[in-house]
Amino acid sequence: MYSIKVRNPRTGRIDYRFEQTETEELALVAASLRDAQKQWLEGGVEMRCRMLLELAAAISEQRGSLFDALTADTGRTRETELEINAVISSMERWCRLAPELLAAEENKKTSIPFIEIGRQAAPYPLTVVISPWNFPLLLSCIDAIPALLAGSAVVVKPSEITPRFVEPFSDILAAVTGLAPVFRFLQGDGSLGSALIDHADLVCFTGSVKTGRQVAEACARNFIPAQLELGGKDPAIVTADTDIERTAAALCWGGMVNAGQSCLSIERVYAEAPICHDLTAAIAQEARSLTMNTGNIDEGEIGPIISEAQRDIIETHLEDAAGKGAITECGGRITEHNGGLWCQPTVLSNVDHDMLVMTDETFGPILPVMAFDTDEEAIELANDTAYGLSAAVFANDAGRARHIAGKLEAGAISINDAALTSVMHEGEKQAFKSSGMGGSRMGPASIRRFLRSKALIENTQLCRDPWWY
Ligand code: NAD
Description:
Blueprint: E1 2-7, E2 14-20, H1 26-42, H2 44-61, H3 63-74, H4 78-101, E3 108-109, E4 115-123, E5 126-130, H5 138-150, E6 153-157, H6 166-174, E7 183-185, H7 190-196, E8 202-206, H8 209-221, E9 226-229, E10 234-238, H9 244-256, E11 266-272, H10 273-288, H11 308-323, E12 327-330, E13 334-337, E14 340-343, E15 346-349, H12 356-359, E16 366-372, H13 375-383, E17 390-394, H14 398-407, E18 412-415, E19 436-437, H15 445-448, E20 451-459
Parallel strand pairs: 5-6, 5-8, 6-7, 8-9, 10-11, 10-17, 11-16, 15-16, 17-18
Antiparallel strand pairs: 1-2, 3-4, 4-20, 9-19, 12-15, 13-14
Helix pairs in contact: 2-4, 2-5, 4-5, 9-10
């Protein structure tokens, strides 16, 4: 047995351990999930919706134990509250969407009068979901629930950094007896995630670009699809005609919620030169009003940095920027409180693309602001990145805003707001460049991406003469 120690982000102490699932068990687990999947699919979409709504209701009723575990995992309460609500509401939303999306289709006429085509949607029997630490429950469910609705069985390997929620969630799940045989959580580190890929028909991975590349390579070797949602370095472009106070507040929210530890955090701001100084000052003023939840976990907007490794990345970016001439407008330090690590809400000016803080994912509450002169320059700067997850444009002139947004190489662009993809689920979008690949998690594609199309091509004429000569 391999025991994994878990650090508490608020105290720095190891206060939790769990046993990693043995890789030898995986073949048996996969066989049992595949076996149960047949009945799950046969049961039909209405039955699957019923089961998942039962799970949503059970989460809602027993949210206390889940909330406590997620809070201990991440050291924050506000985002945990939002996370549990988001999981419940998204389950309900998918259950409303699925019956129509998965309804049987009538045969269609073709260009050959006596040949008809029927389409059958066949789910991947076993979907493996590998999830990150930053929204442990939400990012375990965001692929798992639509996959289950499509008719797959699902095994989730959550992050070893935030494993405490798995026990209460598995208890809640076990009580939904029809669902439990096709929905399992297995605990372990990256080696377990890697081993699980060999048992999957489809892998959904959310995490860093580095690991995503390893997952994609392993999936390619097995000829199975990989749906990848990876890191980002989201830019925001602000033109001179915007309302500075409102924009500063939106940018602070977009860049500092969850202490900047979100894939869709705003990590770079490009401000049109005439307002760059005032916007920077307004963002700094807004950032100074944010407090860290060091003492009372329920007070303060900024939670702890999740790990010492993450602290090292933030420190490296801050030191690199300072060494190359960046000016710290506010914050700029990582502080320790009772063993936990917090990064002060930080605004930097005098930055450029020679600095790591403008090119690499920082994952901290840090907003560097850089000036631009023309829209072309802003677009070029925003696109000067390996990432392409999401972006934001702030402009009072709607035509100009849409023009800039249309030129950005990213899957989702918020206009006159930040991180709208976190609250808006209708718009289909895909990750661009190194931020990922695969189908959209939003809109109807969120479920359709778990289905393969089977064409049933029927000769309805039944004549004896061969017709194809
Ligand atoms: P990570 O890549 O370190 O780990 C993610 C998961 O992969 C973990 O469960 C880990 O155990 C597992 N893993 C590690 N090595 C593996 C391997 N070789 N094979 C299979 N699985 C392996 O990422 P993290 O630090 O947990 O999460 C932060 C990253 O995730 C950031 O880059 C963030 O931007 C990104 N993220 C992206 C999205 C999105 O939707 N695009 C959402 C949240 C987080």
